Amino acid sequence: MTAFFEGIQYLFVNILFAPLDFLRRLELITWFGANTINWIFMIICACAIVYWIKQLRIFDDAGTENQDTTAHSFLK
């Protein structure tokens, strides 16, 4: 049973966390390089928010959005 848990430890520590260890070492060299993943996610989220707001504006201008307070049965 000990070998099973040591196998799980090896999997997580030596294999699955290897990219995070790389980022930890990279932070000592360049902060921007280590945070590139964060910047990419922030850009993706900003693009998604802009797209979402554009879609909301399209439906609002067309008048197809149901803004009635009884749109859901639990609001009656």
UniProtKB/TrEMBL annotation:
TM region(s), chain numbering: 28-53
Keyword Transmembrane in record: yes
Keywords: Membrane, Transmembrane, Transmembrane helix
Pfam families per record: DUF6341 (PF19868)
InterPro entries with a match to the protein in the record: DUF6341
Protein name, UniProt field: Uracil phosphoribosyltransferase
Species for this entry: Flavobacterium nitrogenifigens
